[in-house]
Amino acid sequence: MTRPQWCSETIIPSVRMSYKASRILARVKTAYQKAVVFENESFGRVLMLDDAVQTSTADEFVYHEMLAHVPLFTHAGAADVLIIGGGDCGLADEVLKHEAVRSVTQVEIDAKVTELAREYFADINGSVFSDPRFELHHGDGAAFVRTTEKSFDVALIDSTDPVGPGRVLFEPEFYAAVRKRLKPGGVLVVQAGVPFLQKHSFSMAIRNLASTFAVVECYLLTSPTYFGGHMALGWASESLKPDSVSLETLMERHAASGLKTRYYTPQVHKAAFALPPYIGEMLARAKEAR
Predict the structure, then answer these.
(1) Which of 73, 113, 219, 247 has the fewest CB atoms within 10 Å around its CB?
(2) Which residues have C-beta within 8 Å of that of residue 89, sequence separation ≥ 6?
(3) pLDDT of residue 2
(4) Other C-beta atoms within 10 Å of 39: how many?
(5) From the candidates 59, 80, 93, 158, which is the catalytic residue?
(6) Closest by Cα among 178, 112, 166, 163 to 140
(7) pLDDT tens across 132-152, in order?
(8) Do 187 and 240 contact (CB within 8 A), yes or no?
(9) Is 127 exposed, middle or buried (0-12, 13-18, 19+ CB in 10 A)?
(10) In what order do the strands lie in the sheet with 23-29?
């Protein structure tokens, strides 16, 4: 009898989360990291990099909708969007659902990740590669931001955790470079980890954002894939405050867009900024420590 295969997430040293792999679809060593794609009865197809789950077809909509639609519906006038990371291209798929967006520039360091995503995750990114508004670069996102002459209304950092090639995307120098590429009223949103299990990563991201931007907040989502409690997304801008738009206005913008969402609603949008005290206190301490 064949023993079941298990793939384990070990990004938190004291915790191991294991997934039964009914089928291993790909297992490769790229120039930057280990990658495995497997199928799981509960999560569907799963992409794991360096023993950390990046996305799953069963619940990717939670993370991608909140990372895309919260800043885009708040800004309302975003035409040019920058994505750093996001190799599965599920985020780009959500951003491109906004008809007002005229360009999405994505920079992913690992071309092999995009190759795997195109082959195994077409359900979440299939429309992206034929969209003329989408421009994909394979390279160092931090270097791209330092050298590009383009300006953006919204920048979205869909990074791995702050280890390996993703670490530079949490540094103050990177955030400062992004700030220079944002148009007036622009906003940066970053993946800031799970505060309960990744206190250091969350605090570092918020502290470094606060050392760079005038407006820094965070909002929350709950995704089965990113276990350990709420996941935080950091919000940073020179002027655009997340509470500057009323629920009524968000409802009008959402209705006018015609978007069909599975997690995001204007009500969820507003509620996501209501923080449990333990996260609110961590946020306040990190901002004070800038």
Answers:
(1) 247
(2) 106, 114, 117, 118, 121, 124, 125, 128, 129, 136
(3) 60
(4) 18
(5) 158
(6) 166
(7) 999 999 999 999 999 999 999
(8) yes
(9) middle
(10) 23-29, 34-40, 44-49, 52-56
- Residues of the chain whose pLDDT is less than 50? 1
In angstroms, rounded to a whole number, what is the distance separating the alpha carbons of residues 264 and 68? 10
Q: Which of 21, 161, 148 is nearest to 85 (CA)?
A: 161
Q: List the structure tokens of 213.
A: 């931007």
pLDDT in tens, 13-61: 999 999 999 999 999 999 999 999 999 999 999 999 999 999 999 999 9
Q: What separation, in Å, do the N-terminal and C-terminal C-alpha atoms of the chain show?
A: 57
Give how far Cα 200 sits from Cα of 2, 161, 234, Å: 41, 11, 14
Please give the mean pLDDT across all residues of the chain. Answer: 95
**Do 101 and 72 touch, CB atoms closer than 8 A?**
yes
The reply to whether 153 belongs to the active site is no
Q: Which two tokens stand for residue 134?
A: 């989408």
